[in-house]
Amino acid sequence: MIKITDLEKYYATEEVRTIALNKLSFQVQKGEFVAVMGPSGCGKSTLLNILGLLDDPDGGSFIFNGIEVAGFNERKRADLRKHNIGFVFQSFNLIDELTVFENVELPLIYTGVKPAERKARVDEVLEKMQIMHRRKHFPQQLSGGQQQRVAVARAVVNNPKLILADEPTGNLDSSNGNEVMDLLTELNEAGTTIIMVTHSEHDAKYSHRIIRMLDGQKVTENVLTEYKSNTLEV
Amino acid sequence: MLKNYIKIAWRNIKANRLFTVLNIVGLVVGLCVCIMLFSFVNTELSFDKMYTHSEDIYRVNMETSEEYNFETWAELPNAVGPAMVQDIPQVKKMTRLIKDDFGVTASLKIGDKNFTENGLYLADSTAFEMFDFNFIAGNAKNAFANPHAIVLSQSAKERFFGDKSALGEFITVNNRDTLQVSGVYTDLPKSSVIDCDMVYNIMDSWMGTNVYWSNASYETYVQLEPNAKVAQIETQATQLIDKYVHKEGKYFTQFNLQPLTKIHLYSADIREGYSTKLGSISTIKSLLFLSLLVLVIACINYMNLATANSRKRRKSIGVNKVLGASRKHMLSLFYVETGILVLISVVLAFALSFFILPVFKSFTGNALGYQDLLATPILIGLGLIWLVVTLFAGSYPAISMTNIAPLSLVNKSKKKHTASEFVRKGLVVFQFAASIVLIIAVTIIIQQMNFIKNKNLGYDPSGVVAVSVKSAENSQQVESLENALNRKAYVERIAAVQSLPGADESGRSVRRISTDNTGMPIASCRTEGNVIQTLKLNLLAGSELPQSLAKGDSIIYTLINEKILSYLNYKTPEDAVGKIINTELGSRAIITGVVANFNFNSLKEDSGGYMYYKSNVAPESIRTLLVRYTSQNLQQLVNDLEQTFNENLPNTAFDYTFVDKHVAQLYASEEKTARTATLFSVLAIFIACLGLFGLAAFMAEQRTKEIGVRKVLGASVAGVTRLLSKDFLKLVGIAFILASPFAYWIMSQWLQDFNYRTPIHWWVFGLAGLAAMVIAFVTISFQAIKAALAKPVKSLRTE
Fold first, then answer.
1. What CATH number is given to the structural domain containing A103?
2. CB contacts < 8 A (A, B)
3. B269 DSSP assignment
4. What SMART domains does UniProt report for this protein, alphabetically (chain A) (predicted)?
5. Residue A199: which domain range?
């Protein structure tokens, strides 16, 4: 599903050029659950931004679903993004002025889903995340765990092929954290590809494979569970 | 989708209270000003459009020759109208309009009561058809069927006769003509230059029957055939001059047709004319400019506050974009939000307009009614304002905020948005520059007004009251009144004159030698003497006019001013005394005395030649007693004057004017401009401060952490306040530097209108800059001190 080859990204200020990604290459198969680990500043977040089509690389190739997307402009990336990728953030990033229902509904609005269908789909996913009873609340009225469940609901409501999670349990206590990890595992088992950036060895153990990074490069790769994709699609 | 936008926008509006309140207050004030002024402008522009034949009615104006400085006059000889109807087929009708006694207030006697009246006209009966007179008693056709008939407006009728019928009643005008009421018409439209309160038949007077091409005192209106060629008729009318006027009598060279609907606003350069309802297109333009300026400042507030607020909104914009919102989606969202806020403001401003209308009226002197606010163009205009303000005020925030990249959400490092900060600072500079220009302008306008008020006019108008005696039944009455007043303790001096300075003098000309073709136009005023002492004129040589003249003395004694003296090429005033002076008054006029120039007209104009004369054979009559008094209690003075007047002129209405008030009246329009400009400046500064207040609040919030760190490291409250204020004060400083030259230029232009003007002092600029600085500092320091006083732990925790 994802194949990156010699991916490069620099951040330049007036005086120094920092290399965020240094000829990074790896593949992720459809249905796989991959954890990316490494110390702060190793390039994890930069990688996630590029994989999430929020940023473009300075060099190398990025093939998503068989298409080279490295040279896409913002409009094309946005289009690909809204139909294929769901995001889960450490700080949830729910919109404070919108209710739970409206937050989850947002991606459907932007992909042009009709109101009746939107309602059905939002209800379904809220039900699944067990926060249906909180649908009219605003984010500030929820606990951290509940907020992250809403964020996950929002990430999956469009049935994305790929979920990118940036330290999804970073702001949660351990029991809430476990709940979220269980949710992600369930989604993965149902067929969604997940790439998760984390500092937590505990969370990483939920994945099939851990990629460890340092200074913009891959240092090791541990396979925890051999994942056999039923397709050979790259 | 739209429902969704409205929902989100509404919640945003509710969530940011400070932002919303500041914005709405700013917009409401700005919009309210606009609504007021648009209503005012709308009524001004609608003048005289209500008549059935408005499109075909023109006033005939004439161009004078060099002798009268090529001025354009609205008053013509009474022969012009009849000649045009007779000789030019496309001229369908004409009416001449002239105020009784050339515009001097009339004294009316009705039963045993006396009234004064300013709107008494003589006209041809065609006026009724041309100006759609709507008779509620009598009718247009027969109104002037009988000789000595007069028709009244409804309000005049009510004033004189109350609820009783007026038809058939008698009115004595100026103790001269007795007229019988033959009709009552509904009051003429408020927005019409035709302001007749009462009309009698010009053909009952020598003014209508004695047709001549010399004296020009008659406003003449013509109604043309529909689609007539105006230029062609002007040419034909001008040809009448050669046909009917002798070579020596041609002091006018051309006739022009001025559309009726243009008279109200476009008559600033036209002299004479009787209407009291003249406006000025330049006033309209400057008011429009000022109101737009205030509105722009309010819009800038919105832009500033909205973009400052965008830091708060960054997260939600980022999330939306990550979730697939396009630029179009976000633009729509911001425009909907702006649209809602502006809509609320428009509605509030419109409602508020009704409350502050009386204040606006009394403050600026612009007459506006409630119904003017409900005029269709205003209601359409409101919608248009809503749209334009939404698009304009919403543009910059919408564009700058939708440019926020989705990445800014996940990027931990906060990129500084230097471009938007630069624009925001530019906008603050603009607001303050505009405010400073207004402060400077207002200060200079007020200085100029004071300069005029305090300028030595060459005579002393204060302490003099002018009492009209023009309707006295005979000269004995005037004499007995004068004697009675002379016995009063409060009366210092009395002069009997034709006119108070600058009101109803006669236009004459002085020639160097009697055979000169042209001379110098002057104002001449008949007097019975004592003018020097009564008006405190400055006598340079010679003496006051003689106290009494021997019977049979046919000499005309004159007092001239320096203007005439220098025209006549005398080296010193003394040289002129005793010499003969050539005027239309004949060859037996001599110069008795010379007085210093005095400003009998507005100080906008140079004071011209002026001549007082006394003669046994004076062609003009005595119309006014100028009474110099010592009394401090003016009410008592007026009461006593009235009583004495009524004892001596029992059949004449008591009419008086304080001369200093008459002088002030010359500057009424400037006074109005000054007050309006002051109002606008205060509002503009207020709105700019609202914006600054909001910006300072956001700035303080944004720098909370910095403030916390500084305080932990030992910064004082004063130090933090200084830190936060400094940036803004710098902007005000830049605004000052930009504003000063512009203000200097524009005020120099304005002062050009005055012949006598105050110098522009440098300290006015310093003062304006300082005022803006202080106002800005007070506004900011409230926020700055609040931020500085907060506990540092609290501020550090926010990150």
1. 3.40.50.300
2. 63
3. T
4. AAA (SM00382)
5. 2-223
Question: Is A39 a member of any domain?
Answer: yes
Q: Work out the average pLDDT over B434-449.
A: 85
ipTM of the complex: 0.77
Q: What is the rounded average pLDDT of the residues B319-347? A: 86
Partners of residue A109 in chain B, C-beta under 8 Å: 1, 4
H-type helices in B703-761, by residue range?
704-712, 717-751
Q: How far lies B611's CA from each of B130, B559, B560, in Å?
A: 41, 6, 5
Instruction: Name the residue with tokens 């006083």.
Output: B789
Q: Beta A217-223 vs B57-64: how paired, if at all?
A: unpaired
- Residue B630 confidence (pLDDT) above 50: yes
Residues of A in contact with B325 (CB under 8 A): 106, 110
Q: How far apart are CA B180 and CA B182, in angstroms?
A: 6
Asked if residue A228 has pLDDT above 70, the reply is: no
Q: What gap in Å lies between CA B506 and CA B67, rounded to an integer?
A: 15
Mean pLDDT across the stretch A73-95?
84
> Residue B793 corresponds to which tokens in the numbers above?
């732990």
Where helices occur in B370-522 by DSSP H, the ranges are: 370-373, 376-402, 407-410, 418-454, 475-486
Q: Which of B315, B322, B333 to mutate to test the interface with A (most CBs of A within 10 A)?
A: B322
Query: Which residues of chain B neighbour A48 with C-beta distances below 8 Å?
Result: 410
A228 domain residue, yes or no: no
Which of B15, B326, B329 has the CB atom closest to A97's CB atom?
B15
Distance from CA of A108 to the nearest CA of B (A): 9
What pLDDT, on a 0 to 100 scale, did the predictor assign at position A133? Answer: 92
Cβ atoms of residues B154 and B136 within 8 Å: yes
User: What was the pLDDT predicted at B525?
Assistant: 92
| Nearest CB to B8; choose among A75, A97, A111 | A97
Q: What is the pLDDT of residue A229?
A: 56
- Chain A (63-102) residues lying within 8 Å, Cβ to Cβ, of chain B: 75, 78, 81-83, 87, 89, 93-98, 102
pTM confidence score: 0.73
In a domain, A229, yes or no: no
User: Shortest CA distance to B60 belongs to which of B249, B248, B268, B230?
Assistant: B230
pLDDT in tens, B506-539: 888 888 887 777 788 888 999 987 899 899 999 9
Minimal Cα distance from B329: which residue of A?
A110
- Which member of B318, B320, B406 has the closest CB to residue A106? B320
Where do the domains of chain B lie? 1-47+278-414, 54-271, 435-453+665-799, 464-664
Residue among A45, A106, A110 minimizing CB distance to B410: A45
Quickly state the pLDDT bin for B796 (edges 50, 70, 90): low
Cβ <8 Å between B320 and A75: no
In terms of average pLDDT, the best of A84-88, B112-116, B311-315 is A84-88
pLDDT in tens, B63-98: 988 777 788 899 888 888 899 989 989 899 999 999
A165-221 tens-digit pLDDT? 988 888 888 888 888 899 899 989 989 999 999 989 999 999 999 999 998 888 888
Question: Which residues of B lie closer than 8 Å to A, measured between beta carbons?
Answer: 1, 4, 7-8, 11-12, 15, 315-316, 318-326, 329, 406-407, 409-412
Q: Do A96 and B316 touch (CB under 8 A)?
A: yes
Show the DSSP H helices in chain A as ranges.
44-51, 74-84, 100-110, 115-128, 144-156, 174-189, 201-204
Q: Do A48 and B407 touch (CB under 8 A)?
A: no
d(CA A191, CA A86): 14
Per the structure, how many domains does chain A have? 1
CA distance A226 to chain B (A): 32
* Residues of chain B contacting residue A82, judged by C-beta atoms under 8 Å apart: 323-324
User: Chain A: residue nearest B330 by CA?
Assistant: A110
